[in-house]
Amino acid sequence: MKVVGILAIVIALGVLAVLMGSVLARGYPAFVKTEIALEVTLEAALIDPNGAGEASTLVKGQYGKIIRNALFDAFPDVIERAEKRQLMSLMSKGARFELRRIVARDPNLVGTVQRVWLTASSDVDMITKGSLRRDVPEAERRLNDRQLGWLDSFEIAQDLRTVFNGQFFTGSDSREPELAGIGGALAGSFWTLLITLVLAFPLGVAAAIYLQEFAPKNRLTDFIEVNINNLAAVPSIVFGLLGLVIFIQLFDLPRSTAIVGGLTLMLMTLPTIIIATRAALSAVPPSIREAAHGVGASPLQVVSHHVLPLAMPGIMTGTIIGMARALGETAPLLMIGMVAFIVDIPSAPFDSATALPVQIFLWADSPERGFTEKMSAAIIVLLAFLIVMNALAVYLRRRFEIRW
């Protein structure tokens, strides 16, 4: 039996290693992006025709035309309209916004010629990083031989590079894979988990203290305890349906917001916190309670001054595990509408938001190949958060656990 157990563990670790290796191999390229350097002429007629330098005027500049002119100047032999479209497709559609931000930071650049690094398109990005092969027939590639030749020209001139993709962590969702980021999803997850923690922790601990320390033992409390244990095993999508009916249809809260997501995940997390808190309270020896009663402490003082502080490490461990489960949940959030395409990063609980697991779901459903590495990178980030939270729970248990 020992050999069988060891074999099972080895197989499980092997499958886990294959899974993690596959995710890492697909996801790590998303942490860098490809940029192309262009010599752009920031013509005042296209950016600031009035010469006033007002911010409201600068943001309306024709930055896309400036980028087109720079590309056509770099390759003067490109004359046909179809080839011009192919040349323009090497740059990201967000490059004009990057150039606009550069000018907005320093309006004195208007009227000068500058060498600027701008984000390349997703196809160029994947070719450059090796995610797509160049040696396949032209009909099976997104970039034709002429476009690859232009890329080679950029590389020879040292106008092609890969840099750390900070926008992946600070940006929000986008239709373009090279511009998509998890910043909005991280903000949505933060607000959702904050609401979940603020509501579920005090309610769960208070309910557990009452059931464990003060509630009389009768059929009603037995019924409540059985239902709490059953709720802990209920599929999470049921809580999504409950949140849809109660918070959206009954209380008319806005869909696809962190407040509704937090309230729904609070319902799902409460049973876990209650069960973990009751287990931590029951682990405190009866002698602690008897000694406190012996010196004249009231039942409330016994719990608040003696039992609860000793049980707190176990309570914190259970709470962190419950929050880690809430962080990785997708089904309840899909039911309450947090599957919407959100461009703006939420700054408050009532703003439209999505969450990191839902963002992964959206990218997994996208037909664009560029979203595959984004999805895998988001999975890596989510796994990192889950590992940190579970490691924190283990640390707290070992650091503060009291062996009686």
Strand order of the largest sheet: 2-1-3
Spans where pLDDT lies below 50 across 5 or more residues: none
CA gyration radius, whole angstroms: 28 Å
Main beta sheet: 3 strands, antiparallel
Instruction: Report the CATH architecture of the largest domain.
Output: Orthogonal Bundle
CATH classification class of the largest domain: Mainly Alpha
The CATH superfamily name of the largest domain is MetI-like
At the third CATH level, what is the topology name of the largest domain?
A: MetI-like fold
Mean pLDDT: 89
Structural class: mainly alpha
Q: Report the principal-axis shape.
A: elongated
Number of strands: 3
Number of domains: 2
How many helices? The count is 18
Strand proportion: 5-15%
Element-by-element helix/strand order: HEHHHHHEHHEHHHHHHHHHH
Q: How far is the first residue's CA from the last residue's CA?
A: 33 Å
Question: Helix amount, in percent?
Answer: 55-70%
Describe the fold and architecture.
The protein is built from 18 helices and 3 strands. By secondary structure, the protein is mostly helical. It has 2 domains: 31-165, no CATH class; 183-400, MetI-like fold, CATH 1.10.3720.10. It has a 3-stranded antiparallel sheet with strand order 2-1-3.
